[in-house]
Amino acid sequence: MAKLKSLEELAKLREDMRTRTEMRVTGTNPDRVVLSVGMATCGIAAGARDTMKALAEELAAHGIENVSVVATGCLGYCYAEPVVEVRFPDKGPILYGDVDAKRAKEIVDQHLVKGILLDHAIIGKGAGRR
Amino acid sequence: MNRYRMHLMVCGGTGCRSSHSVQIVEALNQELKRAGMDQEVQVVTTGCFGFCEKGPIVKVYPDNVFYIEVKPTDAAELVAEHVVKGRTVQRLVYKDPAGGQRIAASTDMPFYGQQIRIALRNCGLIDPESIDEYISVDGYQALGKALSSMTQQQVVDALKKSGLRGRGGAGFPTGLKWQAALKTRSDKKYVVCNADEGDPGAFMDRSVLEGDPHSVVEAMAIAGYAIGADEGVVYVRAEYPLAVKRLKIAIAQAEEYGLLGAGILGTAFSFRIRLSLGAGAFVCGEETALLNSVEGGRGEPRMKPPFPAEKGLFGKPTVINNVETFANVCPILLNGPEWFASIGTEKSKGTKVFALSGKINNVGLAEVPMGITLREIIENIGGGVRNGRAFKAVQTGGPSGGCIPKSMLDLPIDYESLAAAGAMMGSGGMIVMDDTDCMVNIAKYYLDFTVDESCGKCTPCRVGNKRLFEILQRITDGKGTMKDLEDLETLGGTIRDCSLCQLGQTAPNPVLSTLKHFRDEYLAHVVEKRCPSGVCQNLIHYRVVAEKCIGCTVCARNCPVSCIAGERKSPHVIDEDKCIKCGVCFTKCPVDAIVKE
Fold first, then answer.
1. How many domains does chain A have?
2. Spatial contact of B314 and B295, defined as CB atoms under 8 Å apart
3. How distant is the Cα of B120 from the closest Cα of chain A, in angstroms?
4. Local confidence band at A123 (pLDDT 50, 70, 90 cut-offs)
5. Residues of A (42-81) whose Cβ lies below 8 Å from B
6. Which domain holds residue B360?
7. Which of B38, B88, B479, B490 has its Cα between 20 and 30 A from that of B300?
8. Mean predicted confidence (pLDDT) in B213-219
9. Residue B536: inside a domain
10. Eight-state DSSP code of residue B80
11. In sequence order, what are the beta bridge partners of B373?
12. Is residue B63 part of a domain?
């Protein structure tokens, strides 16, 4: 590691390193949005790993912080795997089915960024928890 | 750089390490490798989470699931269930003792609910041995800000405005210390970090050094810039090997990155830090004795004035602050002094870290805003008194502090209120006592400590404390008189008024505060020759209740001095002349037929 010679170099290093810990900072934020990906055997078999990867990449591409991508167990919708649940802190959860990498990007672009639900892919809606 | 989808944070503080957290890290890494997920999931060794009672702790991000009392053998299940299948392992999740429900998120746990973490902000969040992780959470930004956009006076003004006061115990305003050192002209100045944490039951400084050493390194450099010093010394106990190791790593990394050394961040400011290891004398926590020790002299206090800010290490102007004080500096510069001053009470700003121990359910470290009540700390965060017993007192401030009784539990904590109660903030040790603790004996315990640790320079402290101890010994032996109680007060007052340093000035506090708040216990020992808590051996007797005794002979067989006699299946008798009051019969009796009185 070369010595940092200016405040700008330090600021750049911080930006480069931010990905190392932002997941932890977000994880304890009560206002975070949680994306849960069904990662039980059926989910993994249906390609949930690619879904999860696509979600993470698209979030990074948009520079969105305050969203946690979490693996969860079987949600019971085996016919619609991979499934992704979107949970905003103040709203009821929305469950999407058949989420491949393409649809994962759509969820981020439409639902998270613009607040538009993907009506054609919703397989369940829950009541607000808080 | 690899982008991990999950982080497994394993506590690497001294407490959790002693219950095998190092092996947990190894086991988790092995299991991840076996599952083929070592490129997806990262295992991080962190500093102390504070919830030492339930260690070792493993926290999972991004799920925010907090596992307690994890064993190396649990690694396989954690990986198979949580990591691979996304199912929380319920049996390792905290169970609320009140309602019995499982609480997975630390933020929902009563222990963390009322905490505000400033000094401990990075403990448990980052790997303390990685400067990159420290930088990723705004590390060294405060130093950069000070060097690039603040004058020395502006840094000092920010500290003054924040209201930050010394966290080592005395509570002197940090900004004023820095101002005095800035004002004094000299060719050489020093910044010293007091990491000679010596109070029994206090471990917050160790946890900061182990969990976030860079926060202290950075703050020392800021202090160096503010007062015009180019050299810093951390005086740390040799008994803290892990803290020493991580400090050394932090200093080496900061040097490598050019954040310590010559011309920091392209400016003209240079600053270096070295360690000085203490040999464990309690008096060396006193700032002037500490300076003597760093210089290679005897650890004895100096006369004040001159204060260290004028004439400190090697006779040069020196800012000396405690670890926790330094840990508050960077957030003050980054978030602004107004933000810091908005937390706490009128005269005590910010937060304080308390080390909870003794007869309390949640032993550990808690950082709370000043002004919180003792009751909130003990009942909400601490989870109340252990084994459902009755609360008797809480000892704050270590050997310099005092015992606060139940009637004062609603006291809002700050420097002034604790001093008014006859105790003191001290470094933040908080030892909870229940109805089985004898307050006279507790006072004797602390005096015993002070007698050992007095450096011997001042006669009132060296001889007076010894006499105080002897009087307490007499009282607990059942040979005390009313005159002894008077003498305790008079002598205690003299020691307090006639000692040079805080060690002597505060040494009688445990006696004077218990005498004030628990006078009835002293009277019971002196007048009735009775120890109400059944602790003082010379004042208790064991007796067999004939009606309850079934003659099983367990007591007689276990008695180490064979002073219990009796036929099989008939009541036994204790020979009190021979009895050494070890209490073995009392604990062994299967039918509770032996009473202690």
1. 1
2. yes
3. 14
4. confident
5. 52-53, 56, 60, 68-73
6. 351-434
7. B490
8. 98
9. no
10. I
11. B412
12. yes
